[in-house]
Write a structure and sequence with these properties.
By secondary structure, the protein is an alpha+beta fold. The protein is 44% helix and 17% strand. It contains twelve helices and ten strands. The strands form three sheets. It has a five-stranded antiparallel β-sheet, sandwiched between helices. The longest helix has 21 residues, at 317-337. The protein starts with a helix and ends with a helix. The relative contact order is 0.14.
Length: 338
């Protein structure tokens, strides 16, 4: 266990290295930070930090830089994330507030996160399996053709055209719409099949029952379709600003193209807490020189998806964590109000 003083020295090294991109020496540390000890004591503390694997010397007679282990301790012992300024919070609100639908929300969120953090932003679309039904609309396109529109609590809209086995009148359509919504609105998708299974038998006309069964089959197919794999990524060009990647950034770019890799990076959506994976904590070989900061977002207490950023391990962790958390909170508010 490091003493508080040596932890303070490590914090100073991380802050200086993130800010200057240069290895940090003991003389610079004592000049820039009020550590309250002599340069000789700082040198001794740095030697201990190096022996224990928290910092490393990249070149002979150079200063020191944090290792993955050093960054991990720095993040774990953070007193708090960096709060956003009032102008930054206002900018987030104004930028996201004008979104017209879910695709627009996700697209704006990706651009905003990339701009705020100057990293690669990744946003997962809300998971259908964790959504609830907000409304089911049924529209007549022709005597025997309907359109089903499913709207979720996250603002997602799914549309399906249904060819009915027989003509379906407006009165029957209005009746089905009312009965369907009375049973499923506000309910989790997983509960819907059981809630509607006896609905066809409640219609007196035999030909209506066939159409009701067809509508329900289409609805249930829509509920179980796999939309979990949808992601949006932005700000990849931000990686070219950094010289932090050994040899080339190609492995990083190739890893970011694999959707399965990104989903694993973000983690399980049901976990709404902040996740920070540093360097070799990322299992994918191409991402061992990067860090991932991710958090869940949703319209209630439970996360329906994740968003986050990918960047070099030499990142402003307090600022990045603050920005990611703030954006997730605003996106959750938008989904709740939409």
């Amino acid at each position: 266990m490091l003493s508080e003083r040596r932890l303070e020295v490590l914090r100073a090294i991380v802050q200086d290295y993130v800010g200057t991109e240069e290895p940090v020496g003991s003389k610079a540390l004592t000049e820039r930070h009020k550590l309250g000890v002599s340069p000789a004591t700082v040198r001794n503390d740095m030697a201990v930090l190096e022996d224990e694997g928290y910092i490393a010397q990249p070149h002979t007679s150079a200063g020191r830089i944090p290792t993955d282990k050093g960054y991990r301790l720095f993040v774990d012992r953070l007193a708090g994330v960096k709060p956003l300024s009032t102008p930054e919070r206002r900018a987030i609100h104004n930028f996201l507030d004008g979104a017209v639908d879910l695709d627009d929300v996700v697209g704006r969120t990706v651009r905003l996160l990339a701009q705020l953090t100057r990293q690669v932003a990744v946003v997962q679309y809300p998971s259908l399996t964790r959504s609830t039904v907000r409304h089911v609309e049924l529209l007549s396109l022709a005597p025997a053709r309907l359109m089903l529109v499913l709207i979720t609590d996250t603002g997602r809209v799914e549309q399906r055209v249904i060819d009915c086995p027989a003509p379906f009148g407006e009165t029957s359509l209005a009746d089905l719409r009312a009965r369907l919504n009375s049973r499923v609105v506000g309910r989790r998708f997983a509960d819907v099949p059981q809630l509607v299974q006896d609905l066809p038998e409640s219609f007196e006309e035999t030909e209506d029952r066939g159409t009701v069964s067809t509508v329900l089959a289409t609805l249930l197919e829509t509920l179980v379709e796999e939309h979990e794999e949808r992601l949006m990524i932005g700000g990849t060009a931000n990686l070219t600003r950094f010289g932090d990647f050994p040899l080339t950034i190609r492995p990083v770019l190739e890893a970011l193209e694999e959707q399965v890799v990104l989903l694993k990076l973000l983690g399980e959506a049901k976990d709404s807490g902040m996740t920070v994976r540093i360097g070799h904590e990322n299992a994918h070989e191409g991402l061992t020189s990067t860090s991932v900061v991710a958090v869940g977002y949703g319209s209630g207490d439970e996360a329906v998806a994740k968003l986050g950023v990918v960047g070099p391990t030499r990142m402003d962790y307090p600022g990045t964590m603050g920005a990611v958390r703030a954006v997730a909170r605003y996106v959750g508010q938008i989904l709740a109000e939409s």
